[in-house]
Specification:
- The protein has 285 residues and is of the alpha/beta class.
- It has a single domain, classed as Alpha-Beta Barrel (TIM Barrel).
- It has 10 helices and 12 strands.
- Strands 1-2-3-4-7-8-9-12 form an 8-stranded parallel barrel, surrounded by 4 helices.
- Helix 1 (17-25) crosses helix 2 (46-56).
């Protein structure tokens, strides 16, 4: 079977300022790549800039944006895209990804809100993604996002909307395993069937993370806890179905010591090793 070439490989870890001192001092041979939010680092000088440079010289890096607001009614922030492109060039960063959401209009809303699942929104968002790709000179990865209430006026299912945007924009997919699980509980669908409806050929890499159970039927995507067994099981099923893809551990709050984070990175590697030489289920069928 032909193996897909990914721009990064293995198991990744998100780089946060809270843990950068410890990470610089800790050997991390199992970490195949790292990820930063570019908005948190663009224009940063002094000690943090030197620390980031030390890490980008040690690992392959990708960026995961927070504020492009691809579904916003406000004009696309082309200046931000240019700044991100320059930041990536400076540090040799390989990929830019963003959320398939919006977070601004006249000002920033400080939350990631769902885009209405409509054909009109598909056309609008795809056009903005294509413009961002033209500016950067590369395809970007859009992440399947968590959301807590459907956007008013939706005419399509979430899976139909995601696939239509990916196809029309000819962009890549940042596959968030935890977001599939969160949405499956909040919106009552089968996470495995949803996952299988996504296009394997567009996966650039994946996220896995923890969350917070607000109630029996409401989960909040916090990235502030350990990954639960059900989400690990969904990652295992994803590798079985799609084959192995690069996967990054996200942890944004309640960040434990690096040794604890590396245990979860090691668990990603365990599942990757399990399926590394097996043909994906989608091929076997």
């Amino acid at each position: 079977m032909e193996t897909k070439d990914y721009i990064v490989n293995g198991a990744g870890l998100g780089l946060r300022r809270d843990s950068i001192d410890e990470l610089i001092k800790t050997p991390t041979p199992q970490v195949g790549f790292m990820e930063v939010a570019p908005e948190n680092w663009i224009g940063v000088g002094g000690a943090f800039s030197k620390q980031l440079r030390a890490m980008t010289e040690r690992h392959d890096f990708v960026t995961h944006g927070l504020s492009l607001s691809i579904g916003s009614p406000a004009p696309l922030d082309e200046e931000l895209i240019k700044q991100i492109g320059a930041f990536m060039k400076t540090h040799g960063i390989k990929k830019y990804t963003e959320h398939l959401t919006y977070c601004s209009d006249d000002g920033h809303l400080y939350d990631l809100l769902p885009i209405p699942f409509t054909e009109e929104a598909v056309d609008y968002v795809a056009e903005r993604i294509m413009r961002a790709q033209d500016i950067l000179g590369q395809r970007i990865g859009m992440e399947n996002a968590s959301y807590y209430t459907p956007a008013p006026g939706s005419e399509m299912q979430e899976i139909e909307f995601i696939n239509a945007v990916l196809e029309k924009a000819d962009c890549e997919l940042l596959l968030d395993i935890n977001n599939i699980y969160v949405n499956s509980v909040n919106h009552r669908y089968d996470p495995v069937e949803f996952m299988k409806g996504l296009p394997a050929e567009r996966i650039t890499y994946a996220h896995i993370a923890g969350h917070y159970n607000e109630d029996d039927d409401l989960i909040v995507d916090t990235h502030g806890a350990d990954v639960i067994e059900t989400v690990w099981d969904l990652l295992d099923k994803a590798y079985e179905h799609f084959g192995v893809f690069p996967t990054l551990l996200e942890r944004d709050f309640n960040i434990p010591p690096v040794a604890e984070l590396l245990k979860e990175v090691d668990r990603i590697i365990h599942y990757q090793d399990k399926w590394q030489k097996a043909e994906p289920l989608s091929v076997r069928r």
